Amino acid sequence: MQILDTNVLARWLLNDDPVQAQIADDAATQPFLLIWTVFTELGWVLEKAAGVPRPIVAQMMEQLLTFDNAHMENAAAVEWAIERYRLGADWADMMHLAAAPVDADSFVTFDKKLARQAGEASPLPVKLLKKPS
């Protein structure tokens, strides 16, 4: 199964270059795999590089997951990341948590904001490291 690069997905979603958008559309007619790294980068590209507002980025990402030809491992975890992102969380941080392997028992960080944004329903518990008192 083919994997579409971030730039192909961005052209397809944004339709900002008619020639490349058509080529991307043709590529998306075949089944494709959405891999974690591309999906993470796509969120950044849409919001930061293309200036798409956060609610629309979240909507685009959700729609991409429901597209018949798109396949992604553990889509439920990605849906969780999209919902946290929609509520204001950092996209990459939430994708780190969603992409964790099943044998991981915690995500260890100094980032208080990440721990707060992940919330209680995080697919992987966040362990916040603190400075000794």
UniProtKB/TrEMBL annotation:
Segments forming domain PIN: 3-118
Record-linked InterPro entries: PIN-like_dom_sf (IPR029060), PIN_dom (IPR002716)
Entries under CDD domains matching the protein: PIN_VapC-like (cd18683)
Pfam families in alphabetical order: PIN
Protein's name according to its UniProt entry: Putative nucleic-acid-binding protein
Annotated source species: Blastomonas natatoria
